[in-house]
Amino acid sequence: MVSIVLPDGTIRSYDGPVSGNDIARDIGPGWTKAALALCVDGTVKDLATVVTRDAAVRLVTAKDSDALALLRHDAAHVMAEAVQELYPETQVTFGPATERGFYYDFARKTPFTPDDLERIEARMRDIVDRDEPIRREVWRREEAIAYFTGRGEKYKAEWVTQLPEGEDISIYRQGQWLDLCRGPHLPSTGRLGKAFRLMKLAGAYWRGDARNEMLQRIYGTCWPDEAQLKAYLNWMEEAERRDHRRLGREMELFHLQEEAVGSVFWHPKGWTLYRTIETYVRRRLAAAGYVEVKTPQLVDRSLWEDSGHWEKFRENMFTVTVGDGKEKEEILAIKPMNCPCHVQIFRQGIKSYRELPLRMAEFGACHRYEPSGALHGLMRVRAFTQDDAHIFCTEEQILSETQDFCILLRIMYHDFGFTDVRVKFSDRPVKRAGSDETWDKAEKALLEASRAAGLEITLNPGEGAFYGPKLEFVLKDALGRDWQCGTLQADFVLPERLNAAYVGVDGAKHRPVMLHRAILGSFERFIGILLEHYAGRMPLWLAPVQIVVATIVSEADSYAEDVTRALCTADLRAVVDTRNEKITLKVREHSLAKVPLLLVVGRREAETRTVALRRLGVKTQEILALDAAVDTLGREAAMPAPG
RNA sequence: GCCGAAGUAGCUCAGGGGUAGAGCAACUGAUUCGUAAUCAGUAGGUCCGGGGUUCAAAUCCCCGCUUCGGCACCA
After folding, report:
1. Tell me, in Å, how far CA of A254 is from C1' of B44?
2. Is residue A584's beta carbon less than 7 angstroms from any atom in nucleic acid strand B?
3. Active site residues of A
4. What's the whole-number mean pLDDT along residues A356-371?
5. CA angle, corner A543, sides to A537 and A544, nearest 5?
6. Sequence-separated contacts (24+) of A168-171 with Cβ below 8 Å
7. What is the pLDDT of residues A103-117, one digit of tens each?
8. A299: nearest Cα among A389, A349, A366, A361
């Protein structure tokens, strides 16, 4: 006797074991067609799975969110089948579902070409039309190894060898083709549908390890229906339109060029944006009790040796050699980070516990020799400036400092228009400095502090910095993409290595704890994120040019100049456009330039000392008296301020 | 760094051994106009760099650089 509970609460009883297919048939004819898989006690399984004991059971259909992964995983298999039919010399390796599609990694001597992608996609459609039944089999380990070795599938054979004892070696067979796979899968290839598209070719290391050989990865996307596929492709196009590199050029914000790879040439408008953000951060930090410092760009190698960075990151540091090339030669590093320098400031004079917590901020310009393949517009550069700070405090103060930091961080993200923030907790990495006891202490302190700050945390094992565990703050942009920006790292190691100390209540010397923290991360990258988030249409307070005063006839020129002067006097960033052009052209150009406010003045406005206000994206106008306009817009454009 | 692709006017792109092309932008002139493109004209090039093959190379070959898409890395 087997009883199953369906999601609506109904209970069905069967004489003996029952398969998902049976259940579907039993519930109703529509379900035989709709059911893609079976969810037994919360785990998704093949529809053919036999339920042998009482369980909560749900039939998965295309409408369910867990169907998507199933669909995509199948798409990967169908792609692999297509590839091996077309190119039999190709070895298969792995092909999982991803957040927006799927990929499969292949081993093949000749690279795939974009033309191959078309052929493969066409063959995939054939395989869907064939509607091959997909069946799960369990093989013995030796059998599987012998089979894959015999077929020249060395990656699969290697993988089987390393599967843990006791785990089923499951093989999924579809038509003539089969693959080692954990599953689950759809009942047949026809159920996949045709809302998929192969997207791009890429290289990828076997098992994600750069020491291994490189495989060829084919990425695809796959959806339950054509409409969703179309929506995804539109989303991709939107992301392309918002690309900060494109906006940076179109909006004349910055450029990059070969002679300074990974370093930004900020143009006047881009630099205005940058400085606005800097001013904002500076005010927020000052209000939160930070002091600001500035430390050297070039620092002798010995300091980096002491801090431990030389050992771990030497390859990624820019260095400068000075001296006669013989005995007197010395090596300086262009600073890749600010923390060792901040400790030097802390070490000046004797610090008392009364001075803690000491929050030391720096808009520190850093250089890192990032691998060439990592560079990407403003998002990954070799020269950047962090909104960096180090909080020197006692162990007891970690709690309240973390709480305060989280509050500050949320306010600042909110001011920039980001409200969805997630937090990751990264604990000790394999390569690290400091004893296990120290790590125990640091991880415990940071965990407790984040709990006290009310954070919901996801664990990110082994991803901490070499000197301490970290909290990482990830924000979601308007397109739903994640960007890791903020960080808070608890460090018990650097103060020790660089010999930072304070005198406690007991009159004895103690080690302070250092909290490394940043909110934006780097200005460069954060500006890139902002541009993509807003598609270049910056909020008024951030817009490099906030207002253009545009004339209709040249008779209004001198009045337009007056208007512009009045706006600038009120600290608004305004420019005047008195070109001899039609107003339609001016409206078009300044709209395309994403200027938030346009003040149009013609004879009427000049005579009545008014302005016709047109907001970006709005087709209507408001007529305002000049004084009122300066007043309202001045208030509207104000930087979000502390207090 | 690794795999793959690309680099021609400011931008988007065509041209694939025989005189370097288009659209938009720019510039000049005319036009004084009421909310997303006024008209006419002009100018603009180390075809990424360096070698080679050839009577002749933007085009074919080799090397390098940069960029793009991924992978790996990210204090």
Report:
1. 23
2. yes
3. 339, 368, 386, 388, 390, 470, 516
4. 97
5. 125
6. A168/A138, A169/A138, A169/A139, A169/A140, A169/A141, A169/A144, A170/A136, A170/A137, A170/A138, A170/A139, A171/A136, A171/A137, A171/A138, A171/A139, A171/A144
7. 999 999 999 998 899
8. A366
Q: Which of A328, A329, A307, A308 is nearest to A320 (CA)?
A: A329
- The answer to whether some atom of strand B lies closer than 7 Å to the beta carbon of A379 is no
Spell out the residues 6+ positions from residue A158 whose beta carbon is closer than 8 angstroms to its own: none
Q: Report the amino acid identity of residue A498.
A: L
From the DSSP assignment, how many helices (H) and strands (E) are in chain A? Answer: 20, 35
Check whether residue A151 has its CB closer than 7 Å to nucleic acid strand B: no
| Distance separating alpha carbons of residues A325 and A318, to the nearest angstrom | 18
3-class DSSP state of A41: coil
Cβ contact A298 with chain B strand, < 7 A: no
pLDDT digits (tens, 9 = 90+) for A245-303: 999 999 999 999 999 999 999 999 999 999 999 999 999 999 999 999 999 999 999 99
Is the pLDDT at A368 greater than 70? The verdict is: yes
For each of the domains in chain A, give its residue range(s) and CATH number, in order of start.
2-60 (3.10.20.30), 67-231 (3.30.980.10), 292-529 (3.30.930.10), 547-636 (3.40.50.800)
Beta-strand pair A482-491/A91-94: unpaired
Spatial distance between the Cα atoms of A391 and A377, rounded to a whole number of angstroms: 31
pLDDT digit string (tens) for A408-439? 999 999 999 999 999 999 999 988 989 999 99
Rounded to the nearest 10 degrees, the angle between the axes of helix A626-636 and helix A557-569 is 40
User: How many CB atoms within 10 Å of residue A119?
Assistant: 16
CA gyration radius, chain A: 31
- CA A340 from chain centre, in angstroms, equals 28
The answer to whether ipTM exceeds 0.90 is yes
Separation CA A621–CA A285 (nearest Å)? 39
What is the CA A134 to C1' B68 distance in angstroms?
Answer: 39
CB-based burial of residue A12 (10 Å sphere; 0-12 exposed, 13-18 middle, 19+ buried)? Answer: middle
Contact A133, A191 (CB under 8 A): no
Contact A554, A580 (CB under 8 A): yes
